[in-house]
Amino acid sequence: MLLVKFKRRYPASFMAHLDVLRSFLRGFTRVGIPVKRSEGFNPHFLVYFTQPLPLSVESNAEYMCVETDLSSEEFCQRFKDQTAKGIEIVAVKDINKNPNIAGIVTYSDYCVNVTLSEEQKKILEGINSSDSVVIEYAQKDKLVQKEVRGLIKEIRCEDDGLFLRLASGNNNLRVDRLLGGIKGLNLEFNLYDIVREEQYVGETNLIPLCDLEEYEK
Amino acid sequence: MNIVERKRLYATVSKPARYTGGEFNLPDFSKSGALRFCFCFPDTYEIGMSNLGLRILYHMLNEREDCMAERCFMPWVDLYKKLKESDMPIVALESGDELKKFDVVGFSIQYEMAYTNVVAMFDLAKIPYYAKDRDESYPLIIAGGPCMANPEPFADFFDAMTVGEGEESMMQIVDVVKKGKAENWPRERVLDELSLIQGVIIPSRDKAIYEDGKVVGFTRKVVKAVVQDFDKAYFPTKILLPNTEIVHDRGVLELYRGCSNGCRFCQAGFYYRPLRARNLSTLCTFGEKLIKDTGYEEMSLSSLSTGDYPKLKELIEYLKKAGEGKTRLSLPSMRVDSFESVFAEEARKSSLTFAPEAGTDRLRAVINKNITSEDIEKSMISAFKLGYSSVKLYFMIGLPTEREEDLDGIADIVKQIIELYKVHRTSGKNLSVTVSTSVFIPKPVTPFQWEGFISREEFDKKLVYLREKLRLRGVHYNWHDYDTSYMEAVFARGDRNLSKVIIDAYESGQIFDSWSEFFRFDVWKASAEKCGINLDSYVKERKVEDLMSFEYVDCGINREYLERERKLAYEEKNTKNCLQGCNACGANKLGRCSLCC
């Protein structure tokens, strides 16, 4: 089995998740990467992803697992320049068993390209030392309130924008939901200005998903 | 438009991957000094990208060192509104440049109801609608596609139009424009040179001559362009892979052009003649390459009547082997009598689609659909034995000489199918029969080009009758509505007076008329009235001896042949399939007609 890390930038960031999957599968067919299939009535390729980002959010750290007997070197050699524009393979690693990447990811890093006022900086950085953050967002035409402090690891205001480390995976906090839901923040930002920088496993000692073997030790 | 502007614009519209480009297999766009061509398709990305003609021409032009061809599709309604509101122009997918920056802008016009979208794209590009209102700073704006069988309703919008197969004329057009650009020719000189190319119409010069409102002749005849050696004709296999699912998201292998059946209502069957096929070995090579170059999991074997291809069985066997069992093959356009049990046996037993078109053997003789009730019965029995449990049937209403017994015939076929299923079924599922009817539209280049279009009263009566007759268990009936068919009939034999109706309908808010949710007949009616046009006059029966304004377009079929076929139709006599011997329709004067491979 292979663990593949890839970038998904514009214009691929505007592709729907299923289309990204289809695009990879067609690439695998073209260059002859033998991907195993499920044995059900409608066999599908055994390829697994972490939780997909909202349309137009970009990423430098997307992951997928590909069930194949091919080695990582062989994969890299064959699967060269086979992706739609904006998708770029960053690293490929051999792994022994299916790690269920969608389930084990705990945190993700994001950078948001946005200009912040002093006031906004104060509110955002204040979160790090506060006990409670309640956000409000629309869900199925209904406004819901949610306590999300536990889902925020770190927020940092930098010269060129905003850095956030948020819970990801099964217990996920969307960046846009957080930034749009903090009362009094009034921050205008675009989804396409958000970039996911890394995805991690572990709770206290965070290890990037691409270094999975260290975590398993 | 730069990338930031594009991101901002596309972030809030549905399916933005339609506009952002970056598909796999994109050609090289770094050729400096190359002629810039933009293909415009007046429907959505999903539909345009499925069009084989566009695929062929796009890649063909881009293989030239001296030409770069881009694409521009009609934006969906949400983006259309945004562009209008913010007064932004539409841009080409690849470069993000405005259409005005190109040397040539070429529209592919596939069906009549796309005409408002053509005008909409002119509007969004900030290009004046009428060719006469544009000065030489605008690109040369041309059109092509099957609607060229009657280019009259939109002729005034274009500087030039191409009738027939673009593989031939497009390369020569690019040559002329390139030379004209290098030597700084005035537009009129460019048009002079273009008019020498086979298949090129210059609408400002080529037209009908009228006397007292009647067509008495033509300035000249324009003969359709035809690929002479179809086996060697360009065919791209490294095709663009769309980043969002399109309507026909699969590889397409074109087996042959033209059709030997001669169904008298069918425009494509006559328009695409002469009959020319690719050799089996050529198709095997292309098919295998197509799988390798795209990774598509499905490939469609396309032509007007795929079952007529003499070596279909061998081709299917070869491609199955080449696809290592992973590539599904689909066979559109199979005639009832050519149903290949070999193929059906292994295919997924979803549903079978047949198009008897008419309910009785008599009416099928009128339209020259050479299949009998017996053929249908035989095919159904073999299908049911193989495990099929779902059947789709297509019929037309409003055909010439249609009577009540022909409608009864439709119901009889359905009832017979139900009975056959009881006896021959092997599937455990209940039988499902879907009957669809469309409305017969008299089209140019067919023996029925002079027929009248069914009146609304008669249509309503027949519909009520048929609905009652088809109230059967497991039978689902749906029908094509009258109003869109009526407008299609208006345009099918329309003349240049209709261009102002198209513009008025567009300016009254009509776009995407081929989408039933956007078509509004009352708007069209009001526009026609405002322009002083009587729409009914376009759909009524014509006299055979009267010339129609589009008859300067010579698609190869002799007028005498069409007249003879019409006579045979009224005598309820069939004409044999061309493969059994030439019927002398005249198309072979444009190229050798054969289905050898």
Can you offer a commentary on this structure?
The complex is a heterodimer of chains A (about 220) and B (about 600). With about 220 residues, chain A is of the alpha+beta class. Chain A is about 20% helix and about 30% strand. In chain A, strands 1, 2, 3, 4, 5, 8, 9, 10 and 11 form a 9-stranded mixed beta sheet that branches. In chain A, strand 8 and strand 9 form a beta hairpin. Chain A is elongated and about 55 Å long. The two termini of chain A are about 20 Å apart. Helix content of chain B is about 35%, strand content about 15%. The radius of gyration of chain B is 24 Å and the shape is globular. At the A-B interface, helix 1 of A face helix 1 and helix 10 of B.
Record the SSE blueprint:
The complex is a heterodimer of chains A (217) and B (597).
Chain A: E1 2-8, H1 17-31, E2 47-49, E3 58-66, H2 72-78, E4 87-94, H3 101-104, E5 107-112, H4 118-126, E6 134-139, E7 142-147, E8 152-158, E9 161-167, H5 175-181, E10 194-201, E11 207-208, H6 212-216
Parallel strand pairs in A: 3-10
Antiparallel strand pairs in A: 1-3, 1-4, 2-3, 5-9, 5-10, 6-7, 8-9, 10-11
Chain B: H1 3-10, H2 17-20, E1 35-41, H3 45-48, H4 52-62, E2 67-73, H5 77-85, E3 104-108, H6 115-124, E4 140-144, E5 160-162, H7 166-182, H8 187-194, E6 200-201, E7 208-211, E8 214-218, E9 222-223, E10 251-254, E11 256-257, H9 267-271, E12 276-277, H10 280-294, E13 298-302, H11 312-322, E14 328-330, H12 341-346, E15 352-357, H13 361-366, H14 373-386, E16 390-397, H15 404-424, E17 432-439, H16 456-469, E18 475-479, H17 482-492, H18 498-507, H19 521-530, H20 536-539, E19 553-554, H21 559-570
Parallel strand pairs in B: 1-2, 1-3, 3-4, 4-5, 9-19, 10-13, 13-14, 15-16, 16-17, 17-18
Antiparallel strand pairs in B: 5-6, 7-8, 11-12
Helix pairs in contact in B: 4-7, 6-18, 7-8, 10-11, 14-15, 15-16, 18-19
